[in-house]
Design brief:
- This protein is an alpha+beta fold.
- The chain has 2 domains: 73 residues, no CATH class; 339 residues, Orthogonal Bundle (Proton glutamate symport protein).
- 70% of the residues lie in helices and 6% in strands.
- A 4-stranded antiparallel beta sheet has the order 1-2-3-4, with helices on one face.
- Helix 12 packs antiparallel against helix 16.
Length: 486
């Protein structure tokens, strides 16, 4: 019966069921205490004890020489000297990590991790077709434009849209921080107030992006994959194909059109598995995220979430309505499968094949537009990430200093967040990596990033959904301003 439903309803039901199953596991099977007086690991007798409550993990183990090792894993960082994640534990003490994963996990954590691995199989299938689909669709779309002049117009229009919407997202984030003041709701600042020293790395950021645009090894960029390098090389290849023209263009265009048809057929087949993949990914998130993690960061989460919602349901729909002349509700309904998948997977690059399918098959956008706008958008248009980074850095600054950054510093945060969002990869938690640059730009200790890691997964899902929604809206805008028949 469920197969008769529209795809977005199938995904939505799978998401809800997965979330409910994860919450049930979290509440009913989220705790476990294990004590082993002697167990064998790599041929050594070891004593081991652990307490797993999802919100906090306590591990003690004693090796054969009698040396005792004690670790705390507390994502909320309320425990002094604790680690933020199991990944950090694996790096610090591989034996403790292996013992915990083998003996100490609660049922909720075990089944959550199992669901994650199962859901990642769906993401791997999408990633499998992402690179060849981007290359074939991009080359096909550019060759179909008929000339370099039209390509220049499309590139200019697309970039103006990206810069405008990302800037609006950052401004929204700054306003939300001024309204909610999330970092000032804590009684004691983490540091002492002093005007932060600017250690700007904006020039370095710009040069890194320029270097990425010129891959020294295009095949290496495909293998890695580096989407910005892939897109730039595909653009250059298609442009010179247009310049050469003649029989060479006909052969190359026919080849890439055939490849595009094959990879799009593969994408449509993979998309049928989307409800199953979303179910497992949602089960993982809700089963492994303890409620206590969110209590101490509630106002920070409210600030980010409110900003993302405002940008997604007010700013972008207004652009659709008045610039693209498209009904926002109908357009959102058309791309809903991609939005729901982006939310559950937290990967805009992984969702790209599904986004392309929804925009073309359900929203009626031409392949000439979508094949250019969407791959480029999934790489450099990160409205949700830009908003999140601006809010997160200002929150950390309020938390650390007990006051506001200087206005000039806030402007630096806005500009750096814009550039950092361009460089952020379309994969889970990529925004955390780029946030280091923004923190350094305004002289804040990068270690303060650990304060917000606990809730990053949930916010990552929200901002990825906004990223994909902005890319989809960009297709409608470019299609309106540069219709295919002109």
């Amino acid at each position: 019966m469920m197969r008769r439903w529209a795809l977005h309803w199938q995904i939505l039901v799978a998401m809800v069921v997965g979330a409910l199953a994860g919450i049930a596991l979290n509440v009913g099977a989220g705790q476990r205490t294990v004590e082993l007086t002697k167990t064998e690991l790599a041929g050594r007798a070891i004593s081991f004890r652990s307490e797993d409550s999802l919100d906090r993990i306590h591990i003690e183990w004693e090796d054969s020489s009698g040396k005792r090792h004690t670790w705390q894993v507390d994502p909320s960082r309320r425990t002094e000297g604790s680690l933020a994640s199991l990944e950090q534990l694996a790096a610090r003490d591989p034996v403790a990590y292996e013992l915990f994963m083998q003996f100490g996990q609660s049922p909720a954590r075990y089944w959550g991790q199992t669901a994650k691995r199962t859901g990642n199989l769906f993401l791997r299938l999408l990633q499998m077709v992402a690179v060849p689909l981007i290359i074939s669709s991009l080359v096909t779309g550019i060759l179909g434009l008929g000339g370099v002049a039209r390509l220049g117009k499309m590139l200019g229009t697309t970039l103006v849209y990206y810069i405008a919407t990302s800037s609006l997202a950052i401004i929204t984030g700054l306003v939300m921080v001024r309204i909610f003041r999330p970092g000032l709701r804590y009684p004691v600042p983490l540091g002492s107030w002093e005007p932060p020293q600017t250690t700007s790395r904006l020039g370095e950021i710009v040069w890194q992006q320029i270097e990425t645009l010129m891959p020294s090894n295009p095949l290496g960029a495909v293998i890695e994959p580096n989407f910005l390098s892939i897109i730039s090389f595909s653009l250059i290849f298609a442009i010179f194909t247009l310049i050469v023209g003649g029989k060479a263009q006909q052969v190359i265009q026919s080849l890439f059109e055939a490849l595009f048809e094959v990879f799009m057929a593969m994408t449509k087949a993979i998309i049928r598995l989307a409800p199953l993949g979303v179910f497992f990914l949602m089960l993982y998130v809700t089963a492994t995220q303890g409620a206590a993690l969110f209590a101490s960061l509630a106002w920070y989460m409210v600030t980010v979430f409110t900003g993302l919602v405002f940008h997604a349901v007010i700013t972008l729909p207004l652009i659709l309505l008045f610039v693209a002349r498209v009904n926002p509700w109908r357009y959102a309904n058309a791309v809903m499968p991609a939005l729901l998948t982006a939310f559950s997977s937290a990967s805009s690059n992984g969702t790209l094949p599904l986004t392309m399918n929804c925009v073309e098959e359900r929203a009626g956008i031409s392949n000439r537009t979508s094949s250019f706008v969407l791959p480029l958008g999934a790489t450099i248009n990160m409205d949700g990430t830009a908003l999140y980074e601006a809010v997160a850095v200002l929150f950390v600054a309020e938390l650390y200093y007990g006051g506001d950054l200087l206005f000039s510093q806030q402007l630096l945060v806005a500009f750096t967040a814009l550039l950092a969002s361009v460089g952020a990869a379309g994969i889970p938690h990529a925004g955390l990596v780029m946030m280091l640059i923004v923190l350094q730009a305004v002289g804040l200790p990068v270690t303060l990033q650990g304060v917000i890691i606990a809730v990053d997964r949930v916010l990552d899902m929200c901002r990825t959904c906004v990223n994909v929604w902005s890319d989809a809206c960009g297709c409608a805008v470019v299609e309106r301003l540069l219709p295919p028949d002109k």
